[in-house]
Structure prediction request, 479 residues.
Amino acid sequence: MSSSAQIGVTGLAVMGRNLARNFARNGYTVAVHNRTASRTRDLVKEFGQEGDFVATETAEEFVAALERPRRLMIMVKAGDPTDAVIKEFAPLLEPGDMIIDGGNAHFADTRRRERELREQGIHFVGTGISGGEEGALHGPSIMPGGSKESYASLGPMLEKISAKAKDGAPCVTHVGPDGAGHFVKMVHNGIEYADMQLIGEAYQLLRDVAGYAPAQVADIFRTWNTGRLDSYLIEITAEVLSHVDAATGKPFVDVVVDQAEQKGTGRWTVQIALDLGVPVSGIAEAVFARSLSGHAALRAASRHLAGPQPAPLSGAEAAAFADRVEQALYASKIVSYTQGFHEIAAGGEEYGWDIDQGAVSAIWRAGCIIRAAFLDRIRAAYDARPDLPSLLSDETFAREIAAAQDDWREVLATAVRQGVPTPGFAAALSYYDGLRAPRLPAALTQGQRDFFGAHTYRRVDREGTFHTLWGGDRTEVSA
Ligand code: NBP
Prediction:
């Protein structure tokens, strides 16, 4: 067998198979391999005419099929399977070769794998890939980490198979060293959770408070999708809401069990944010809302609890309310992106990654699940001021939130009065109000901590750290 393949893909389930086809359709010779060899044979049988595939059955054959330095992409289930595959292939590789992990790995695992393989001279490129199976085939958003050297070799190939933004720019950038790519992919997914939760809350308000049927709500989302909320998630929301169940003739959304599942990347985003001390309250509420929905027994046992029943609005009032919900959704969305980008900045600082936030927002403009017109504007904000401390410090976003806030508050007040749960909207507004508050009750918290634990506090009028002798005569001493 000649070593002719420019890239190899091992792990040919939906993602790996479609990425391999994407490389082949773009003119690359692709070696393909899967633990269960029938998947490899099926791929070549079904799609062999799309390009140059080299089907291999053993690890040795697979590695031998790759030109040097070798580019070997792993698309297996994240976690132990990734380690098993690395263990199988690494001994067959040589210094300078690259292993690209395109699975949804935890960035800490990626850091460990990168360190271990670096000792062998192998570049380990943890790469976030978003866009689902369609994206993998037609162009995903790609977030590679790893060394600069590996990006010089891989970048042009990834640029070719990636999604392209409206201005033609490929949705891939070298995010930073070691685990930076998987970290950014993790936060992407956290933001995705928040986006979906906020859309869900808007939907429920439009149904329960405005009194619209799912098909009418779908029309409202379609209209929103022509404005500043233009995004893939709003577009598919309209599709899902207008879908009718063939078996019952009912709206599809009414026959689906209302318990949301999750695979873990949203949870990781929140866990890491807690470690980094970054308030990602909107993302956290989105994760918790999925968790609450899944507690079927608890929910069943709680149905009798007292609370108001929403009373649907009349026609003109409903339309006016829908406009206000759009404002609330947009303002809350600005806050979740603000929180997500804060986490990326904090992760970059903690791990020494030097992540270009503008470049990250640019590669999310197409291909990935959170793709949206909005991301062009985030990029513009970071381009204008790369050291922007927060998206809310950008004048345009601050002005838009200022214009939206009366409606945002009104929508939340209505939701609270009518007993419609809106944890995402509420967390976003509290974050906003928390940041703008001239004084926070944290001063009282510090006093309590000093009282029960002598934890000390700082004063507004003098440098230093102090403690009050609470159990004694309450004089203040320097700590
Ligand atoms: P899965 O996550 O379902 O993984 C199936 C693949 O892993 C098969 O090729 C399977 O081989 C292989 N595999 C397993 Br399981 N254990 C293995 C082991 N010990 N050794 C070797 N191979 C093993 O596939 P997927 O949905 O295509 O996703 C692939 C990766 O991409 C995952 O990390 C996923 O999180 C990530 N991702 C998925 C999406 C998406 O939309 N699905 C989006 C973005 C990222 P077999 O055929 O022999 O069982």
In short: Residues 441-478 form a domain with the Single alpha-helices involved in coiled-coils or other helix-helix interfaces fold (CATH 1.20.5.320). The radius of gyration is 25 Å. Residues 11-16, 34-36, 39, 75-78, 81, 84-85, 103-104, 129-130, 132-133 surround NBP (CB under 6 Å). The mean pLDDT is 97.
